[in-house]
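<tokenise_the_fold>
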Amino acid sequence: MGLEPHSAAVTPDISRQVGAWAERPVAGVVPDVNALTVDVEDYFHVEAFAGVIDRESWDRRECRIERNVDRILELFSDAGVQATFFTLGWVAERYPAMVRRIVAHGHELTSHGLTHHRADSQTSADFFQDVARSKRVLEDIGGGEVKGYRAASFSINATNIWAYEMLERAGFRYSSSLYPARYVREAPQFAFHPLSDSAFMEIPIASIRRFGLTWPCGGGGFFRLFPYGLSAMNMRLAARRDKKPCVFYFHPWEIDPDQPRVPGASLKSRIRHYTNLGRMHSRLTRLLADFRWNRLDRIYPALGS
């Protein structure tokens, strides 16, 4: 495709880049509705276990993704909400019927890449091939356009801003690959256009700036580690202060307290992964009732055109 690898040496100054991002916020969003998103990967795909789980062993491990996604589909149906499912191509190729059920329930099907490689560990050429193939796989199975992408472990950051250009070239219309509270803390907290003269969007995970710090409030391990009331309060504050939608995410394995334990993982990884798994389903039920939710492509009308 004529793509050359990028390196940190040619990465634009991040302060200047963040300033440019802040000058290009996305206009025209559906008010008072937040975006509900699911990263469709199994427990053995997670970055926290990458050092102790060989990728070659994935096909030999007990895969629990289908039963957990079906529980999520039931949970969402009971609550009357629709969401965006960022799905690994690896999962879609092995569970195509599950992917079709996601679409049949009225949810948005989007890409989480092919095999959960961090975007900042790939060259631009490898990244392009990965995301383009994942898009084709999901579109062939789901039967519709795949507009959105989320990088594994939110790994679009100061070292690989070029990823946005690659995503647009591959035919994506938006990304949701920034979590300002964890990585690029200076980045905008709400949707913006990262490319000059382009309608391509980056839609970050929700965070809030308080007391001079950027605090997470958009899901993941923080939602299980922090008291529910704190997460809900921060989401309300973020939405009320800026009158913009918040983006929340979680994984199917987070509602599965009986999943196999991974030997050899560090104490930090075990705490991050296993804490409060047994409480997650009830917390999600409460969250769905306390806020209004929808798919990303319906909250941002420009994506539906």
Notes: The chain has a mean pLDDT of 89. The first strand starts at residue 34 and ends at 40.
